Amino acid sequence: MSDKHTVTVTVTVNGQVYTGDCEPRMTLADFLRHECGLTGTHLGCEHGVCGACTVLLDDVAARSCLTFAVQADGARITTVEGLAEGEQLNTLQKSFQEHHGLQCGFCTSGMLMCATELLRENPNPTETEVREGISGVLCRCTGYDSIVKSVMAAAGDQRDAVSEAGSAR
Amino acid sequence: MTTTAEPQETKYTGKSQQRIEDPRLLTGHGTYIDDITVPRMIEGAVLRSPVAHARITRIDVSKAAELPGVFAVITGNDLVEFAGEQPVIWSVIPEQRIARAHALATDTVRWVGQGVAAVAAVDRYVAEDALELIEVDYEPLPVVADLEQALAPDAPKLYEDWPDNISGSMTFPAGDADAAFAEADVVVGASFRHHAGYGCSIETRGCIANWDVFAGKLDMWLGTQAPNLARDLLAQVLSLPVDKIRVRTPDLGGGFGLKFDFYPDEIIAAILSRRTKRPVKLLEDRQESFVSSSRARDMRHDFEMALRSDGTIIGLRGTAYAVLGGALGTVGSGPPWASVLACMGPYKIPNQELTLKAVMTNRSPYGSYRGWGMPKANIVHERLIEFAARKLGMSRIDLRRMNFPTPEEFPYFSGAAFTYDSGRYADCLDLATSAVNERGWNVRQREGREAGRSIGIGYGFHTEVGAFGPSRVLNMVGLDHSGFDEVRIRMDSTGKVTVLSGQSAMGQGTHTTYAQLAADGLGVPIEDVTIVTGDTESCPYTGYGTGGSRAATLGGAAIVNASGRLKSKILRIGAELLEANPDDLEISDGRVSVRGAADASVSTADIGYSAYRMLNGRLPESETPTLEEIDVFDPANMTTSYGCTALLVEVDRQTGAVTLLDCLQAHDAGVIINPLLADGQLAGGLAQAFGGGLFEEFVYDEDGQINTASFMDYLLPSATDIPPFHFYHQETPAPHIPGGMKGLGEAGTIAGVSVVASAIDDALSDLGVAVTEFPMTPPRLLELIRAAQSAGVTA
Ligand code: FES
Ligand code: FES
């Protein structure tokens, strides 16, 4: 509406710069979905509990439904669309496919972002640490066990990749 | 029985094939309802009643209508101009009073959350602003907040012209229950209460309606498990011909039965669209979902079981109370009815008297949730058999085993309605108990107890009625819909395959399992198969929808049948090209060859070219062009899969908190198409049941207000609440389903509630606690523990 106060927000999402005008009350989730066209970030509750909307905001996992777009102005954001390597799934995504870590896929974006942060901070997690690490993202489909297996296996694959790279040097 | 075309090869069926759906969903490239934008689209929002029972004396929408950005505001009176009452497709109780309501209330509201008015605006933010400007005056009416209040002799009535609040009642007799109870050595009974919860897909419901009167079409995107049903019901409510309606389904972020039902929102969006001449998106937000999506589970079962002293069950009787809402939902009293029909479970019980009473309250409409009544049936038989074992001093395992029908006794009629097709129940029970041993649970329990911890092992045996169901039987028992499934399978001019199905993909991996069946049925690589679902204009008609464990059983059977016939045609064309006899040919990996002489071969691309483009000299004169088969599969009977679940828990006697340590299930769903996906279905269902068994509850106050309308208060289990899972399969194929599948989508939800109770009881066996209420929250369990402790002290 023309009489409404708007602000200009600029963010870098998955390496691409986006600038858009929005009302100050627009959430980061809505900005990503509507202004940037990145609908991979999902909304399951819009009150900060389900974790489906999790993105990496300057490398830290954040709930985009509880963040206003203006708060993210100038930030570097990674969403689920930024995980694949070229046309290949990354290690974590591959592991989710292999271990059936997703069914409907709706929580999956949040799970992947959350697990990305988890594995960066703790490349060698125990099962309990994985369960605790992903406990902020709710999944209604899988019963979690397959997600835990996916994350554990991805951790192993990432370690293998690192040691391979090391020995090749 | 339909003729069976067994797949010749099982290169894929039975294998843990990775899902073809995944790369899209893992990269954020899925398309869910809120990801869809159609040109000129605006957005809607619904004003919902803040009170549970009241007459509407005034609605003033003028301020809302004036808000810039608002396109239309409608009330119930505007809606009735175009729409009839919301449909009820299940009328299971003869002469039941069916309370119907319009999509927006016209004069009286009967639950918190009932739609009163709706807005279409430039976006959702403005639409919600406008809702706040609508003025409504309510004249309060006395509230019937719960079942006990509804049944009280002086209860206020929801419907003035009814004698009471009972919508209907019916009894299923078998044998002579009174005589059985009179001669019984032991009788056990209890009142079981499962409180309200819901399917709670992480994606809420939504639709985009485009009702264009100039185009003469209603085009709808709808997050539904039943697109064909939705189209028929849109036609019914809006008095439109079906051919003028198209329903498309995007990716579903979970369904769980909740998205089977047909909601007022679909009608509201359609009318907003007609009013504004714009497509209107209407999404439910999370908070609304607690009052606007189907409430489920809410029932009380007062049941008792009669046994002889040797453990033989001779009778089961009782009354089940369905806590219906202020009006009936799409499925009426269907799930409560199923809870009664299935409450004998896997046991032979010659004498039964099973009564269902459907009761109206000022709660939101009752509807579908995965398991559809059967989780509560399971509570009845699994709790009672354990109470009986205690009273008889028998092993709970032995008591179960001795009351199963033997494999030779199948098909077995269970007494009320269902005939179980086949089964090896005792084998399955043994598979579970030996797995419990193998995993060392008995040792863990003993050692834990020695260390002063309250460790319990729970058992539960479940039956799951699937392949739902023979159309004429469903009609006879009160369903205004059918149960068959239709599939269309096509090989194109390049020899690739497309399967069109009316089933909905909601995360269960239907596209992958269907591709596995079609690839095996035709002898082509799985990469050559594309599955298409989700459009009533191009996909076949399916009876019912995706629910009742139908996708693998009925859709799967139709694929087996259709691909069998299509393969015969492919071989006949191949025979012409190879100058051979069709009987000597085989297809493997997309090549047709003479059996034993692989060098003489043609590809499916050659076959496709011959059937669509270069017919001359290549397509036998007797064959019609194209390669396409349709199969309509209407089952002769339902299927009954079954399983035995075991659960290891620890109870904290100080807090009443229950920790789930480990879980396993031995399961038989006939032929398993994809073990990886099957285990996923079982695990997901169990997790939902554990939520219902321990955490999830709609809590109402005496005014009928819901106190749990956010994820802060309605507690979905998280990864730290749910144990690891281990699954063990045995396969007893369904004799009447081509392919032999029995279905397993609901197994977990059916099995998982009673087993929580069994495990808690076992952990507290020294106290003699008997869990009968769900969810068994820490305060409730603490109360049981304290009561048992003080009873122990006084004794
Ligand atoms: S949508 Fe952000 S936490 Fe649920
Ligand atoms: S995969 Fe559906 S909610 Fe997690």
What is the topological layout?
The complex is a heterodimer of chains A (169) and B (795).
Chain A: E1 7-13, E2 16-22, H1 28-35, E3 54-57, E4 60-63, E5 76-78, H2 91-98, H3 108-121, H4 127-133, H5 145-168
Chain B: H1 22-26, E1 42-48, E2 54-60, H2 62-66, E3 70-75, H3 76-79, E4 108-109, E5 115-121, H4 124-131, E6 135-140, H5 147-151, E7 166-174, H6 177-183, E8 186-194, E9 206-212, E10 217-222, H7 227-238, E11 245-248, H8 264-276, E12 280-283, H9 286-292, E13 299-307, E14 313-324, H10 334-341, E15 351-360, H11 374-392, H12 396-402, E16 412-413, E17 419-420, H13 425-438, H14 441-450, E18 454-466, H15 471-476, E19 485-491, E20 497-501, H16 510-522, E21 529-532, H17 551-578, E22 585-588, E23 591-594, E24 597-603, H18 604-612, E25 627-633, E26 639-651, E27 658-668, H19 675-694, E28 725-729, H20 747-763, E29 773-774, H21 778-794
